[in-house]
């Protein structure tokens, strides 16, 4: 690997490790300081919040990253970032207003007040959480796109350490779900300011922009955000619909146990994300002159990702029981069994995520939509069949099986993309 890769991956990996540790510790603190019934309600709400966050992104964050990664100068980057931030602010405000007006009215459908007594209040403040989360993720994607991975590390660390510190502080003051929400809001405000300052500091001398230039970047950002948004909804349904359906069709205990298992698998995937996000900007632009070099680097990266995924899968299998017992306590020990069932899901996610990153940077997100829709449908169908009878185990089985078709597709699509690039070079269509 070259020095740029090592530097980018190091910053990203350190950020992901900090995020993983802080996130798991935060979850442990919440599980231990809240009663199991309250922790289950938080887990149920958090799965809904995650889906709302993805809806709030609307594909704008990743679209902005891809567009800005193709800019060839600091001036172009500054113009693109200005446009992207205006688009982000407009849609974040609009979505926040819609959620504030309509979401609390849906609380009875989720089990309020009998099963989840705090759900209506949680729904009423979700708009604030979604607003700040949209900007937190926006800044992370932007700094990745402009290859400023030091700022990506700073924002990632500040976000998850903020969740831990603020939530723990408020929980010690008052052991209820509202304290966790206050912690998340406080962290969102801090990271929002850090991200704004980061862009200002790096581009304050370069922003010269008019209306025509604004629309020059707004249109591409909006156009590419559409398939990204559709894929994003597919991803979040695949990753969170199981927890949501558990909350509806099963017990609070199953929700709590599954939430812990799923959280650990997701945090393990941070290492794959760190590796993939640290290198994929390299393949954003492939020409006839650099094709062989880029193809060779891609193959090496592919092998490394498979090795990382296999190693982590083995670690999850060998140490999950001891880890759950030590960190969460014996009352949550069933989560270790659920983790073992989710290992195929993590493995498939780690592999397919690598190819998905590549396809996104090659402007091929639209072609993934149909396949992901089939995955979403399969996931929902299997969850509906298995959860009522098998609870958390059924959700884990459904989630693991449903990702298999998309993993096969993402690999095949990546191979075809390299073949297409090679074909264009041979026929003079790519210089």
Radius of gyration: 21 Å
Query: CA-to-CA gap between the ends?
Result: 25 Å
Count of individual domains: 1
Report low-confidence residues grouped into runs of 5 or more: none
Measured as a percent range, the helix fraction is: over 70%
β content, as a range?
A: under 5%
Number of helices: 14
Q: Assembly type of the shown chains?
A: single chain
Strand-and-helix sequence, N→C?
HHHHHHHHHHHHHH
**What's the main sheet like?**
none
**Can you count the beta strands?**
0
Name the average pLDDT. 87
Shape, per Cα inertia axes: globular
Assign the structural class, choosing from mainly alpha, mainly beta, alpha/beta, alpha+beta, or little secondary structure: mainly alpha
Pfam family, one: Polysacc_synt
Organism: Butyrivibrio hungatei DSM 14810
Subcellular location: Cell membrane
Protein name: Membrane protein involved in the export of O-antigen and teichoic acid
């Amino acid at each position: 690997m070259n020095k740029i890769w090592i530097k980018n991956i190091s910053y990203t990996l350190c950020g992901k490790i900090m995020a993983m540790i802080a996130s798991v510790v935060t979850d442990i603190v919440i599980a231990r300081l809240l009663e199991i019934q309250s922790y289950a309600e938080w887990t149920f709400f958090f799965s809904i919040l995650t889906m709302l966050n993805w809806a709030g992104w609307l594909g704008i964050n990743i679209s902005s990253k891809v567009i800005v990664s193709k800019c060839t100068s600091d001036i172009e980057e500054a113009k693109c970032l200005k446009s992207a931030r205006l688009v982000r602010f407009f849609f974040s405000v609009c979505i926040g207003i819609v959620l504030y007006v309509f979401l609390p009215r849906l609380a009875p459908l989720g089990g309020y007040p009998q099963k989840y007594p705090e759900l209506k209040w949680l729904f009423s403040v979700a708009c604030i959480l979604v607003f700040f989360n949209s900007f937190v993720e926006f800044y992370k994607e932007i700094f990745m796109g402009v290859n400023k991975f030091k700022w990506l590390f700073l924002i990632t660390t500040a976000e998850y350490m903020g969740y831990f510190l603020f939530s723990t502080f408020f929980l010690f003051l008052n052991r209820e779900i509202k304290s966790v929400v206050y912690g998340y809001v406080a962290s969102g405000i801090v990271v929002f300011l850090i991200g704004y300052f980061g862009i200002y500091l790096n581009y304050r001398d370069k922003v010269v922009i008019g209306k025509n230039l604004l629309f020059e970047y707004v249109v591409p950002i909006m156009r590419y955000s559409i398939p990204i948004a559709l894929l994003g909804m597919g991803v979040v349904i695949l990753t969170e619909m199981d927890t949501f359906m558990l909350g509806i069709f099963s017990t609070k205990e199953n929700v709590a146990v599954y939430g812990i298992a799923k959280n650990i698998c997701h945090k393990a995937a941070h290492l794959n994300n760190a590796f993939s996000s640290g290198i994929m900007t390299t393949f954003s632009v492939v020409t006839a002159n650099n094709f062989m070099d880029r193809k060779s680097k891609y193959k090496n990266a592919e092998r490394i990702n498979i090795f990382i995924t296999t190693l982590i899968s083995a670690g999850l299998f060998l140490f999950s029981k001891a880890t759950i017992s030590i960190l969460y306590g014996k009352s949550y020990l069933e989560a270790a069994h659920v983790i073992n069932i989710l290992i195929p899901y993590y493995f498939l996610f780690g592999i397919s995520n690598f190819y998905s990153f590549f396809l996104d940077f090659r402007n091929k997100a639209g072609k993934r939509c149909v396949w992901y829709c089939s995955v979403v449908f399969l996931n929902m169908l299997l969850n509906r069949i298995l959860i009522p009878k098998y609870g958390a185990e059924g959700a884990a089985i459904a989630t693991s099986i449903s990702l298999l078709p998309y993993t096969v597709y993402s690999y095949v699509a990546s191979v075809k993309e390299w073949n297409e690039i090679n074909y264009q070079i041979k026929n003079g269509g790519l210089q």
